[in-house]
Amino acid sequence: METRPRIKIKLNKTDKIVEILGWVAITMFWVLIIRNYAQLPDEIPTHFNFAGKVDAYGTKVNILALPIIASVLFLGLSVLNKFPRFFNYPVPITEANAEKQYKAATRLLRYLKLILVLVFEMIAFVSIKEAVGSSEAYALWLLPLILGMVFIPVIIYMAFVLRKTGK
User: Fold this and answer.
1) DSSP classification of residue 43
2) 3-state secondary structure of 55
């Protein structure tokens, strides 16, 4: 196994804002669930098909799985983000490029943490709206939005990393 440099990455202003937004999103997610839990019917939507139609139902306790999973993933990724030397990179890591590569990778992971929480929160929001009988088609835009939110930052990251190496 190659030995990669240990570098402590300093967060810039944007990184700090994204990190704070992630913690705010987790907090707001729990507030959303707690405020709406009592008014949910015993049976709620738990899955939507590609057309945005409900195709599975479960008990309202299932809604608690979303913020729990999002919180565990967020915290786990926060810990992992402190060790960028263990990440997989599309380019070889050297002393010369380590700091730049680590910054880009930790920034991507920070964005993805925030996006992950927002995706879970949107799924919960749509499930709650559907459960209480909202006639608006929230679920229809959910899949395209999620795909865009996840893949656009990854594509930008890959373009940045590969452009710098000439691949």
Assistant:
1) E
2) strand
Q: Which of 74, 72, 70, 47 is nearest to 58 (CA)?
A: 47
CA 97, CA 31: separation in Å to the nearest integer?
42
Name the pTM for this structure: 0.84
Residue type, 125: F
Rounded CA gap, 47 and 90, in Å?
Answer: 35
pLDDT (tens digit per residue) in 42-53: 999 988 887 778
- Distance CA(50)–CA(55), nearest Å, equals 10
Q: Residue 101, class by beta-carbon neighbours within 10 Å (0-12 exposed, 13-18 middle, 19+ buried)?
A: buried
Residues 53-83: tens digit of each pLDDT: 888 999 999 999 999 999 999 999 999 999 9
Domain boundaries, the chain: 13-165
Rounded distance between C-alpha atoms, residue 120 and residue 72, angstroms? 12
For the chain, first and last CA: distance in Å?
23
CA–CA distances in Å: residue 76 to residues 18, 49, 109, 144, 159: 16, 29, 11, 26, 26
3-state class (DSSP) for residue 58: strand
Collapsing DSSP to helix, strand or coil, 123 comes out as: helix
Helix (H) or strand (E) holding 42: none
